[in-house]
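Lab notes, practical 5.
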Amino acid sequence: MIYSQGAAADPALLDEGAEPAVVPTVHVAATNAAGGILGMLEVIESDFAKNLAQEEVTEQTAQSKYDKMAQVNKVTLVIKTQDVKYKTAESKNLDSRVTEQTSDLQAIHTQISAVYDYSDKLNSMCVAKPETYEERRGRRQAEIAGLREALSYLEGTGSMLQRNHHSHK
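Output from the prediction step:
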């Protein structure tokens, strides 16, 4: 705002960035000088009052926005604090469940291992395994040797039986 009385405006009273304006020289009677100064002071007062009102509205708006944001932040803080509590409790619960499940898994692995060992033992007892050539050969030789021994025994006792059998006739 430019407030001037006379030939040039006072640069200290100019709005920021405004160019000083050259006002044509106006000659006013000395009697009006007091009225002109008072008029100018009234305009300045009016401008200050208008600027003060605008600043107060701006300040109230900013304070209102701040208060709303502060309330939102308080609510958000409470919600997030509760979330932390619930998630911490849930985490502890899950950790205990993992420990429990791991223990159960180890017990099941132990049981499965025992079942496999028992199955292997039963299979070795119940499932016939083919003999190797050496085992069959040894078994047959033992059988042949036993049969020869039996034959020699029978030949020796058989002659006695025939003699006894002939004497009865």
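Observations recorded by the TA: Confidence is low (pLDDT under 50) at residues 5-9. The CA atoms of residues 55 and 61 lie 10 Å apart.
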